[in-house]
TrEMBL record:
Naturally occurring in which organism (per UniProt): Marinobacter santoriniensis NKSG1
InterPro entries named among the record's database cross-references: Ald_Oxase/Xan_DH_a/b, AldOxase/xan_DH_MoCoBD1, AldOxase/xan_DH_MoCoBD2, AldOxase/xan_DH_Mopterin-bd_sf, N-heterocyclic_Hydroxylase, OxRdtase_Mopterin-bd_su_IorB, TAT_signal
Entry-linked PROSITE patterns: TAT
Chain positions covered by the region annotation Disordered: 300-320
Pfam families on file: MoCoBD_1, MoCoBD_2
Superkingdom field: Bacteria
Annotated protein name in UniProt: Isoquinoline 1-oxidoreductase subunit beta
């Protein structure tokens, strides 16, 4: 359609800037619109930007660490804005209240919550922007907005032929007001949600384009390494600073809170200087226990106190007293490292009154607190630039590496990059906690009448709240940071959220049993811990689903049918269980030397059942095939769902087969992939993933693939050998 001169000038005026929409996401100050006359630059409270030259920018409030938020969240915006997802350009969000995760009141990525918390808000945001653009075009054409449509970034005239690009309409659209709720696309009109879309970052990563933390390069940048105490809590008495400082390229050697920092002009020179460093450590207040001591302390705690009741139904003691048989079992799981392929690293530049940080972090607001804690800066003086993450798995929720680089940069007049070696990353991790489970169940005429589960081990919140508390209240004076952490632990479950890290996957016990008693006996031996992929579900899933297999054996029933009978009132559990039994050919014949095991776990709102087919070859466990059925609600991108479930399976198999961090006199014995092994490509099993077509709201998929595979493998080995393994990692000769 040809525009007259007045209409053309009116529309063209809108091309001089951009439309900035601060979308009504949870935690945002409210729906606002803004228009910048000159440059159209992004503003801190803005989420979506449409520019005069038809560029669309979406600010990602959640980081991309391989789990697919870069694609998934962009797809939600693209669907309702009616543009192809690949035409949207992404930016990682700076630290701002608008970008806090509403479930945690922190700006963090974790708990498989990114899509679940963004499902409706981001779709509403895209739909609102699209509606405002349509209203603007309708005014130009003097037609009814309801008769206009959109197509791939253009508003289409009612005649179906003429159209205008969004960029020509941004100024006019910014003046429009939407009254009432905006309509979202019905499911039958979706172009992108639920389709087999490619990953938007696939080409970028294939060509090496994205900047990870370890890739950051700045003018005149120097490099730092840190030598830390071999035992947690050790302090340096003295070290040969002068002789190391005299080595080629070394700029400085000094002590920081976490060890001895060496700063050099090149990374390898810093490492050579570190090798020449001799430190006399004071271990008087350091951790001195060994792995055996940890489990001995757990056993004592389990006997001395029953712990806090986390779920109580019926009367377990009465069920046990009237039972035909009482089955008991005890399960142990070791400490586990995260082993992200990109080790911990960060870059910081202190320039007078401010510090700028570039880091692969799952919590940029916590990173600001980490910087403020070790300098005389306030959080407002710190800028955090989030990069792509080469794996997170919960490790990058803790900001110890940020504290280190900030303390070093604060004493250096040039930008500083700190990189941990693989050995440092393994031996100074914050681990998945070791746990002990004491289980009892009462059986009567083949039915489970009572279930008792005592979980023994620490809570992660006690370690995490140190910087999380101040991050929620960044205006707090720094001398109160530690007080906030202490209060956060003391008020857990009252003024602060209850820490479920030890009990999740246990308290949700889904099987129909009349008498249930689930308890947590909290005991912390002092080994540093943090969140690990699937958190409490990883160890509780193993205990619950292995014990269920034991009960099926005691009752003389097929493990699949035993579970099915006890899940009669749980349709979503039944759906994945039945689906995986078919997918995994549960009742089918097997070659000699192989067996199948089954498990089902709901974690982070997602139901996953798995069948593992395994055997023993040449004295080693061999996993041939893993089948998985998944109900994650509406799948945004089925390909990413499959990839994440498969990735979780391989992550879980690594833990089941090899994962074990051990201590001797407080020192971690593992150091690199030769003795903290990852699953190798040649050991990768065939993986089949079946996604249930669901219209429920989407849930997370980054972690739910992990919990079922560990017990399913153990159950397969029992079916093969007749020997039940209750301690991880699993052994071929157990």
């Amino acid at each position: 359609m040809s525009l007259n001169r007045r209409e053309f000038l009116k529309v063209s005026a809108g091309a001089s800037g951009s439309l900035l929409l601060s979308l009504s996401l949870p935690g945002c100050a409210g729906l606002q619109t803004g228009y910048q006359e000159e440059t159209g630059q992004w503003r801190p409270d803005a989420w979506l930007e449409l520019t005069r030259d038809d560029r669309i920018f979406f600010t990602l409030a959640r980081v991309e660490m391989g789990q697919g938020t870069y694609t998934g969240l962009t797809t939600l915006i693209a669907e309702e804005l009616d543009v192809r997802p690949e035409t949207i350009e992404q930016r990682f969000a700076p630290v701002a209240d608008e970008y806090r995760n509403p479930l945690y009141n922190l700006q963090l990525t974790g708990g498989s919550t990114s899509v679940a918390t963004s499902w409706e808000p981001l779709r509403t945001a895209g739909a609102s922007a699209r509606q405002m653009l349509v209203m603007a075009a309708a005014r130009v054409w003097n037609v009814e907005a309801i008769n206009c449509s959109t197509r791939e970034g253009r508003v289409v005239h009612p005649n179906g032929i003429d159209s205008m690009p969004y960029g020509k309409l941004v100024e006019l659209a910014s003046k429009e007001v939407i009254r009432g709720d905006v309509a979202l696309k019905p499911r039958d009109q979706w172009k992108y949600i639920g389709k087999q879309n490619h990953r938007l970052d696939a080409e970028l990563k294939s060509t090496g384009a994205p900047i990870y933390g370890i890739d950051v390069e700045l003018p005149e940048m120097v490099h730092a390494v840190v030598t830390r105490s071999p035992r947690y809590g050790g302090k340096a008495r003295e070290f040969n600073a002068d002789s190391v400082r005299a080595m080629p390229g070394v700029l400085d050697v000094f002590e920081i809170d976490r060890g001895i920092a060496v700063v050099a002009d090149k990374y390898w020179r810093a490492r050579k200087a570190q090798a020449a460093l001799k430190v006399d450590w004071d271990y008087s207040e350091a951790l001195g226990l060994s792995t055996a001591d940890v489990f001995e302390s757990y056993s004592r705690a389990a006997k001395d106190e029953e712990g806090e009741s986390e779920r109580s139904e019926g009367d377990y003691d009465e069920a046990e007293a009237s039972a035909d048989k009482v089955v008991e079992a005890e399960y142990e799981q070791p400490y586990l490292a995260h082993s992200t392929l990109e080790p911990m690293n960060a870059t910081a530049w202190y320039r007078g009154a401010r510090m700028e940080v570039w880091a692969a972090t799952q919590g940029p607001d916590l990173a600001r607190i980490a910087v403020a804690r070790v300098t005389d800066l306030s959080p407002e003086d710190v800028t955090v630039n989030t990069t792509f993450l080469g794996g997170g798995f919960g490790r990058r929720l803790t900001q110890d590496y940020i504290e280190e680089v900030a303390a070093i940069a604060f004493r250096t007049d040039r930008p500083v990059k700190l990189i941990w070696s693989r050995e440092e990353d393994t031996q100074h991790d914050l681990y998945r906690p070791a746990m002990l489970h004491r289980m009892k169940a009462s059986l009567k005429q083949g039915d489970v009448t009572g279930w008792h589960h005592q979980i023994v081990g620490p809570q992660i919140l006690n370690w995490y709240v140190r910087n999380a508390g101040p991050a929620q209240f960044p205006w707090t004076p720094k001398f109160l940071y530690d007080t906030l952490g202490t209060v956060g632990v003391w008020a857990e479950g009252i003024a602060t959220p209850k820490d479920t890290s030890a009990i999740e996957g246990a308290v949700e016990y889904p099987y129909q049993v009349a008498n249930i008693d689930i308890r947590h006996t909290q005991t912390d031996p002092g080994v540093p811990i943090s969140y690990w992929r699937s958190v409490g579900y990883s160890h509780n899933g193993f205990a619950v689903e292995t014990f269920m297999d034991e009960l099926a054996h005691e009752a003389g029933e097929d493990p699949y049918r035993f579970r099915r009978r006890m899940l009669a009132q749980e349709p979503r559990y039944l759906a994945v269980l039945d689906r995986v039994a078919r997918l995994g050919n549960w009742s089918g014949d097997l070659p000699d030397g192989r067996a199948r095991g089954i498990a089902v776990v709901r974690s982070f709102g997602t139901y996953v059942a798995q069948v593992v087919e395994a055997g023993i070859e040449n004295g080693a466990i061999r996993v041939y095939r893993v089948s998985a059925a998944v109900d994650c609600g509406q799948a945004i991108n089925p390909r990413i769902v499959s990839d994440q479930i498969e990735g979780g399976i391989l992550f879980g198999l690594t833990a089941a087969l090899y994962g074990e961090i051990t201590l001797e006199q407080g020192e971690v014995q593992q150091s690199n992939f030769h003795n903290y092994q990852l699953l190798r490509q040649y050991d990768k099993p065939e993986v089949a993933v079946d996604i249930i077509d669901s219209q429920a709201a989407p849930t997370g998929v980054g972690e739910p693939g992990v919990p079922p595979v560990i017990p399913a493998l153990g159950n397969a080995l029992f079916a093969l050998t007749g020997k039940r393994q209750r301690t991880l990692p699993l052994k071929a000769d157990a």
